[in-house]
Structures are given as structure tokens and as C-alpha cells.
Amino acid sequence: MTDTEVGPVRAGAAHDGRPDGMVQLLDQHGVRHTHPDHEVDLEPEELLGLYRDMVLMRRFDSEAEALQRKGELGLWAGSRGQEAAQVGAGRALRRQDHVFPSYRDHGALLTRGVDPLHILSIFRGTDHGGWDPVAAGVHPYTLVIAAQMLPAVGYGMGVQRDGAVGTGDPERDTAVIACFGDGATSQGEAAEALNWAAVFNAPVVFFCQNNQWAISEPVSRQSPVPLHRRAEGAGMPGVLVDGNDVLAVLAVVRSALERARNGGGPTFVEAFTFRMGAHTTSDDPTRYRLAAEVDAWREKDPLDRFRTYLTAEGVLDEDFEAQLAHESEALAERLRAGVPALPEPDPVSMFDHAYAEPHPQVQAERDEFLAAWEQHDRDVHAGGVL
């Protein structure tokens, strides 16, 4: 591998290591900057809320990984290092907006109030997502790469046709955000989704978390140009934002969502970040990634950066940190107790949600399955099956 393939910054970077044109409000040293097009002005309580979300997201992630190592989860897709991107995007949403996540967007779900146990139930294999998609405004996780992008566009076209776009009513106008990784941009569904959204002016924000690696493939082997520039070919604006800067992500995504709600159409946002851990708990990143790259990105840790800023501003104090540490530990204890107690799924439940309304073919398959299951029980009781 060459330095270009695995280095922490792509070719064409600015002198301070940032890619050219990247929106940044908080640099890696925690120093606040201004931007002519993207700004946020938050109250101290809002800043602390962002920090709380990021800390709890990281603790959730570390506990989930530990549970998988103990055998309580079948797999885990970690999100360490991507806290600023996910929390910033999640907090930019309004109540009526809808999220179409990938399997790694735990932070976005937590900001929407999804019970963390309902996220872990997927990785334990007890269901396909325990939350109510309508109540939470979050589509179930999509484990197939880029498969959530086309439904996101379809949902956006639906709310558009329902008259929930461009009315000027902040309680009604709706936007959709499709969350995906850099690897998803290499899939055909991504190209189709971008094209449909642009052609139909759908109220969709395409939120790409470029964490530099699609499993073992660096982004340099996926695209010869920065990912956000793909928006030009599709016919929509593209914005590059520092994905480790929660303030910049909040500002950029909030603006893109507002544009979508007002009828301005789709936007492609590339959040430039880094996956600090493995792709999943079945992956060994040391086989394809240099330690020097990880060390370079560790200096840009989104939590350390934001904490430095809040402390310097006098917003974060020891009392709040102590309270947050207690809350983090309570979350961890709840997960450790709750995951093993998740109920085993009813085998027949797989037929219950195939269609919104009863379907004769599904009903026939359900009856056939039940008959076979009952026969199996009879054979076991009769001693005919070991």
C-alpha cells in the first residue's frame, strides 16, 4: 500500500491537514472558528446536550463490543470515532423528519430516543429492530450496503406528494436523511438514489460518513474524486464537512435539511471522519490498516476536541462530568442486565410483518410452517426425533 492509499488525509489537502473546502467550526485542538456559510449559535445547555449524547454513544458502543466478546451478541458494528458525525446529524432533525440508517448509525438512533436495547436486539438475533419506525421516525436498520438509500428517496417523494414539503409550516414540512458509509457510494443503489432524488427534487439529505475504509478497502480505491463531488453529476449541491466536529456537522446538516423541507431538493453531505475500531467484531483492521494512520486520527478524537472547547469556554465543569459518568455507568449496567434477558423470538412472528395488510400467500406459508412445527413437536414427544 502507498501513503496515498492509507494516509489520514486525501490528496489535495490544505496545509493544516484538512481536505480543501472542508467546513470546520472546531479544529482538532478545540479552537472555535467561524464560517461564512455555516454557523451555529447554541446555548450552554444545548452544547452540554451534544457532549452528553456523544459520551453516552461511546459508552454504548464499548459496552456492546464487550457483550459481543462475552457471547451475548452475535456480531457488533462499532462506531467509535464517528460520534460527532452521528450526533450532529441526529440533533439537526425535527420531530417529523425520518431517518434511514445503516447498521452503524447508533448515535443517530439514540438522539431520536430509540431504546438502546432495541438496537442490540438486532445483533443478538431476537428481532429485526425493536423500535416503532413511525413513532421514532427511524427506519429499521439495513444490513445490505446502500439498500436504505432508495427507500429513503421513495419516502421523501411520498411526503412531497402528501403536501408536507414547502408549506412554510415548521411542524409539518418534512425532510428525510439517508445515512450511509463511503463504501455504499460504490453500489448501484447509491447512483440510482441520487439520480431519482435530483430528478424529482425529493426532500432528502444524503449523509455519507466517509470513515476512510469500506471494510479493508480505502476510499482511494473507491473513487478518484472526493465523494461529495458526485453530487455535481447527479445535479445537487455537495458539501464536505469535518465529521469529527459536531458543531460543523450540526450546522451543515441543519442547513441541508431546511433546504429540503422548503422544497429546495436534495443535498449530498460528506462527513470526513474515521472508524477507530474494526469494521465489525469479526474484522481485524491491523491486517490492512497502518498503525500510524490510526494514531494520526486519534489526535482528532471528536470527544476530546469538544471537551477541550467546552472546558475552555467554561461550559463544562466537574459536577456535570461526574453526573455524566454516573449516567454512563447506569446505561452500561442496564445493557449488561438487559441483553441476556431479551426474549427469544416467536418463530411465527417472521410472517407477521411481511406486509402491512394480510396476504393470502403469506398466510398459506404461515399455516404450512405451523403444521410442520406441530408435527415436529409430536415427533419429539414420541421419541422419533433426537
UniProtKB/TrEMBL annotation:
EC number: 1.2.4.1
Domain Dehydrogenase E1 component: 52-333
Keyword Oxidoreductase found: yes
Entries under InterPro entries matching the protein: Alpha-ketoacid_DH_E1_comp, DH_E1, PdhA/BkdA, THDP-binding
Chain ranges passing through the membrane: none
Cofactor(s) listed: thiamine diphosphate
Entry-linked Gene3D superfamilies: 3.40.50.970
UniProt-annotated stretches for the region Disordered: 1-21
Keywords, alphabetical: Oxidoreductase, Pyruvate, Thiamine pyrophosphate
Molecular function as annotated in GO: magnesium ion binding; pyruvate dehydrogenase (acetyl-transferring) activity
GO biological process: branched-chain amino acid catabolic process
NCBIfam families listed in its UniProt record: PDH_E1_alph_x
Annotated protein name in UniProt: Pyruvate dehydrogenase E1 component alpha subunit
Naturally occurring in which organism (per UniProt): Kineococcus aurantiacus
